[in-house]
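[audit] Reproducing an earlier prediction to check determinism. Same input, same settings, fresh worker. If the tokens differ from the archived copy the diff job will pick it up downstream; this log only records the rerun itself.
[audit] input (742 residues):
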Amino acid sequence: MIQTLCRLTLILIGLSTTSHAAQLTLTSPSDFQVVQRSSPGKGLLRIVGELSEDVAATDFSIEARLTADKQQTPWLRVGGSVSGKKLAGTVEAPAGGWWKLTVRVVRVGQEVAVGEVPHVGIGEVFVVAGQSNSANYGEEKQSPTSGRAAAFDGAKWQIAEDPQPGAGGKGGSFLPPFADAIVAKENVPVGIVACGIGATSVREWLPKGASFPNPPTIESRVQQLPDGRWMSRGEAYAMLVARMKSLGVGGFRAVLWHQGESDANQKDSTRTLPGEQYRDYLAKIIRDSRRDLGWDAPWFVAQASYHVPGDEGSDDIRAAQAALWNDGLALPGPDSDALKGALRERGGAGGHFSGPGLREHGAQWAAKVLPWLDDQWTSPRKIDSGTQWSEYLQLPECHSLGWVRANVQTKDTASWNGVLDEAKWGTPSPEQAVARNWDWNVSDEQWREAVAQKSEGPREEVRFDFWLPDDVAVVRGVVVISGHGSGEHLFKRQDLRALAAEHRLALFKFVGNPMQRGFWPQTLLLDRLAAFGEKCGHSELAYAPLFLYGHSNGTGFSAVFPSYLPQRVWGWVSMRPGTTFQAYQPAAAQVPGLVIFGEDDHFLARPSREENLAVVPAMRKNHGAVWNFAVEPKTGHGPGEKTWPLVFSFLRHTLAARVPAEADARRGAVKLKMLSVEQGYLGGNWDSTRGGYQTLPTAPYAEFEGDKSTASWLINAAYAADWQAFQRDGHVTAKTTTRNSE
């Protein structure tokens, strides 16, 4: 199969006095390329092309759509650019294929270029290396029956018909039946990168310069040193690493290694490799390749030492291969030595596999890989003095905030009781205007009725991650994080995990549009917490109190959820809200809330800075909300290292104030403490006309001299000091953040 180069014609509009066309060659992805998926439901697709002439304009966008027989994605924004002659970007694409990939370039809302790649897959990619039984020396050529297995020889992709490109030999291999088995189970395309070289010793696969006392039987890839020792020329290793590198970091699932026959029981016994040395040499290949790749690529190692009947294996080599499994350097491949008789060529007289043998060999490799592959998504793993579990669900669009807004009867802006002073601040332009009223009170019944009428919409993968510190007998509460924006980073922070361990808290994060920006019904979250409770043996997760975090449009989760289940939430944070009006939730007024803005965040100016900054004061005035806000000067839409200590201070102090020390969710719902506004502190709000760092007054409620109805409500003296320091200095000192207020 000849690789297809896809050409796009880009009409350059407004770049000169006359419109003309430039040619664009799309070089990535290639036709029949398989991209390694990063989760069960998606992978990152890299799109690269080159124009025939420079493009000076900067207002181009790139979009991509994937189409299959009965599926089609919407136009997906490609994160990238058109710059000079180069077009480059990435897009998150759904697993599956073959997809037809359509790429278009858009300028000022008009499609000015379009092109296609006929076959693109998001699935599983395997590198296969070793000697003849990893290559094309089988007795009968094989073909993939699924039609969804492709091969890569280091330069081009094609359907994975034997002989496999990139490997030695001209006969058959186990790779088409292996790939078909993966396709059948996982329902995604499979990419094969075959690198096997017939009759090679493990010594020939060593990096260049690696030495050993005795040569292999074939000496073409080794050379003798002046001191009588031998060394590898490194060609096989360099080829293997180059092909793996071309796939990128994390660009394949695993290496499948089948080799050992040319080291076991050689006719010249001086060429036989002792098992201990075999183990050391293969360990070096694995370790060095991981170092050169920059990531810990998994390796499977088969038991392979069979020659012919009567010489059916080497206990020494087999033990060495097993030692790599036992030491954790490699995973167990199949016992290919056990495949004998009619499964070998020439009626069982040879060492290579017959047609039935190749199919059985492929099935046995799949039997080793598939259970491990399932475990990659869901098996618990030790990390950061705790254990982390993951789960992936395909959830429909109807759970998302956007779908509810479009399909369920919600209140309009005119009914919002937080109307701000447009006479003072000006009416926003139509281009800037955003919906203000997000206080919808959509019941589960209304939602279900809308789903029944409108259908649930397309499904999308949502990933859930749950982390529990070691040695926690009873979980006191759960920090729940929308993975949108900075939430993914926050979940992994070691300082948050240390705080969680200190206070016996679990961390829970989800990412995926049906959840991360807000969802219905709220029991969707509670069901997942209960499910993780069963997995980790902590039934109290079904009732544990929650602390919520959302960044940007994650405010649609962190601020809206408490308005539906205020009795379950001890506090919430909105970081750089994309739409501050989502936070105007009167039903959540008695749940402590913190909104943190970035002074230079472009979202703060939509529809105006003054309106956004007035949302929390309006909630304070109209509903007595126990909320506060802070503005981080000289920062944009993303939080920085100085932002987190204020978040953690708020988390600590609200936990101590709201969750009873004796609370035990194993006995059922925890009754959270209600807070008295008069017992807290107040802080003067940040002045947008001054900007920058400001020394804002704080005082106990009774002593505060400003407008008590609109001032930020601060839970206690310790948090008030942290809040004041953050506004004055841009950071919170370690002394105040480590203070334990319990």
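[audit] rerun output stored. Observation attached for the diff report: Residues 126-378 form a domain with the Rossmann fold fold (CATH 3.40.50.1110).
[audit] end
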